[in-house]
Amino acid sequence: MKSALVLGAGGFIGGHLVKHLKKEGFWVRGVDLKFHEHAETHADDFVIGDLREQDFCRSVIDRGFDEVYQLAADMGGAGYIFTGEHDADIMHNSATINLNVADIAHKRNIKRTFYSSSACMYPAYNQEDPDNPNCREESAYPAAPDSEYGWEKLFSERLFLAYNRNYGLNNRVARYHNIFGPEGTWDGGKEKAPAAICRKVAKVTSGDAIEIWGDGLQTRSFLYVDECVEGTLRLTRSDFEGPVNIGSEEMVTINQLVDIVADIAGKKIEKNHIPGPTGVRGRNSENSLIQEKLGWAPSQTLRAGLEKTYEWIEWQVRRNAA
Ligand code: NAD
Ligand code: GDD
Fold first, then answer.
1. I need a labelling partner for 243 at 20 to 30 A (CA). Which of 27, 98, 140, 230 fits?
2. CATH, domain range 181-221+251-286+301-321
3. pLDDT, tens digit (0-9, with 9 covering 90-100), for 190-245
4. Which of 80, 115, 149, 310 does the annotation list as catalytic?
5. Which residues contact residue 173 at a Cβ distance below 8 angstroms, ignoring those fewer than 6 apart?
6. ipTM of this complex prediction, to 2 decimal places
């Protein structure tokens, strides 16, 4: 039986990845600081601990794992990474985890590892035009991410690639573009726009207004979590080390995102634009490289993913209210 280790298994994408690996018949160990808040784990073994601690890291990365997925990070949406208040923690916590994992995975001769980078590492200067952002993989340099979160991701993807070159680690790097879906953070300050908008729409009655940060004309693309997991598994098992975008090419303004969610909810929603952390003006995935290297790219519509996500968040809102 094949075995996999998922670091960050108590989080959103890690939780979905564990489920998928179990469906494939893997024996799975999950590791996190905490249990998953929104779902029972499907992992065979779930270890609570801090991956910043080298000894703990050594104790969970056993020699025999066929695949190790490194998703543990100090992360959140615009309300967490763009305020500047968490910069030192984000850089220290995530970099320490990655330094530990890369080194121990190499010393334990792990056959295949995966690291989740982010589109936040792309230079801000290529994301000023909301209609024409450039997020092609080769546009990463000269580096100029707009957040410390992005700088840490850039450092860590380089770290894993250096271990590949110098020590023969077999790591794969993906740059995720805003992943969304059920069982993700939807409240509390770390939630991203799709979950925040679903929550706000679910909480009001038709005809009411919800608050939107900025003028709503900033653009993004959002990828449904099932396709993120599929891309992650395809990349990890491929011969291509990356970095490669895993994201949707269906770019929308935040105002359009609100309109789609309102339509799914069957509510008329007014928009109250307020100042807030907005990040880059435009961002979209560019999928030529993943298509070329893996012969695959995400294809689901944003609306299809939002229908499932809204249903889940609406249920959370009702449950919490009760
Ligand atoms: P998440 O916050 O839901 O999951 C990350 C998990 O890491 C959390 O459960 C957290 O408790 C755990 N963790 C943090 N510090 C830890 C530590 N010291 N020891 C053990 N566990 C620790 O985030 P996610 O959305 O599932 O993202 C997974 C990965 O993908 C992260 O590396 C993130 O930066 C990256 N990513 C996500 C997105 C997105 O839109 N969700 C976009 C780009 C990149
Ligand atoms: N979170 C949130 N909440 N964002 C809102 C809101 C709101 O209520 N209203 C408007 N927005 C706007 C933000 O200001 C931002 O311009 C846009 O929606 C997208 O915000 P997020 O989804 O929070 O983050 P992001 O796309 O800027 O960055 C995310 O994606 C990266 C990968 O592409 C983050 O999750 C990063 O951690 C991730 O790496």
1. 27
2. 3.90.25.10
3. 999 999 999 999 999 999 999 999 999 999 999 999 999 999 999 999 999 999 99
4. 149
5. 114, 115, 117, 157, 160, 161, 241, 242, 243, 244
6. 0.99
